[in-house]
């Protein structure tokens, strides 16, 4: 079904708020945490492929576990009613709704799990870029409503 223009506009406003007002400061803090962890943030060499793959595996595992339990937490009555219900207002599967969430939820459920792995392993910037790109694409595909070849079906999200 076509999305009503007013609803799409409201979605775009909240998503832009989340991406600018919450995500930018969060990434600035994340940078400082990576510095404290000793991540090679200014490095003229790329890490070896085996290290990149190992770091990506850690990132995937930590993100999946953290997102799952935080998402379950946001389904508790009080948090659902006041915070998480915003994300569930959208029934039409379109990718932009991946970031359509209360700002608190966006930080705790979307951004924190994304950065746990890179902070834990003190990831190289190139690894962090690959990880952030893959995680973002995965989230957009889960919210897209399309089942792309060779990828997991987003149907689980539609049923959720």
TrEMBL record:
One of its GO terms (cellular component) is membrane. GO terms for biological process: lipid biosynthetic process. Keywords: Membrane, Transmembrane, Transmembrane helix. One of its GO terms (molecular function) is iron ion binding. It holds the Pfam family FA_hydroxylase. Residues 57-160 form the Fatty acid hydroxylase domain. The chain crosses the membrane at residues 12-32, 52-70. This is Fatty acid hydroxylase domain-containing protein.
